[in-house]
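Sanity check

After download, print the first record. It should look like this:
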Amino acid sequence: MLCLLRGGVVSQDAQRYLAVRTPGLQPGDGRRETLRAHPAEGAGGAGDDVLRGRVADLVHGFVLLYPLVRANGGFAAMRTGRAGLHVARNAFHYAAQFGWFMALTLIPIAQVVAIEFTMPIWTALLAVSFLGERLNAARIVAIVLGLVGVTAIVRPSTGHLDPGQLIALAAAVGFALSVTMVKSLTRSESAVAIIFWMLIVQSAIGLVPAALVWRSPPPAVLPWILVIAVCGTYSHYCMTRALQHAEATTIVPMDFLRVPLSALAAWLVYAEAVDLWTVLGAALILGGNALNLLAPARARAAVRADA
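Expected structure tokens:
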């Protein structure tokens, strides 16, 4: 899980850099303010950047995954009898990733990350409904605190609901669907096979729209694309391996350490202010999920004490 957290934070910061910065612009200049004031006007350009970035990320990811494919039996071992679930899982994940990128161009990174971390709420509900996992008291508390937290962040009572917030929330649900399907796939597929089919399917999904808007990335951003590819590919691999050993509702909350780390990075690198409501909402979401994570350990300790 340490590998997952490191890869997720570094990949996220690199994606953020590519999503909101172009050569010659400083964070917070022109394009970002234009997107905030006129989201429809800027959506096309931001979407084009997302498509190009995703295709480059996936192509580099395939190259990076090849050593693992070869070490695990080669391409013959990547055969699957669950192609439909692979396609569905990656369609949801691709759409969620696209939405996440778009949200980055519309609202502050602290809000994007905090809203994204409602994912364990939706994952818990989906895992109970479709995977047979149990919804105990700790998980119920995590769901309630998470809902209160996201309400504190978006504050619908203020009369202004930013489209970026809705996009980020939809992306969180999409990620939860993807994680739930990955957990199901781990029952019959290896971690390498799951990531292999992720790269194949998502490359196919993004190929046509990316071809329509393709421009070769400038040399200045190539190192960042490589960072995204390395960290993104292997963080997905670590997540899949972790899901082979524990329930989804236990693994996913560990990713929440990215909340304070991402907010800190946004403050240090992009000079984005973090308001009190975002801090409060993130604290509630983190607290609920920490309880969810610690409850099984306490239960095991109690059983050992009784024995």
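If your output differs, re-run the checksum step. Summary of this record's structure: Confidence is low (pLDDT under 50) at residues 1-14, 17-46.
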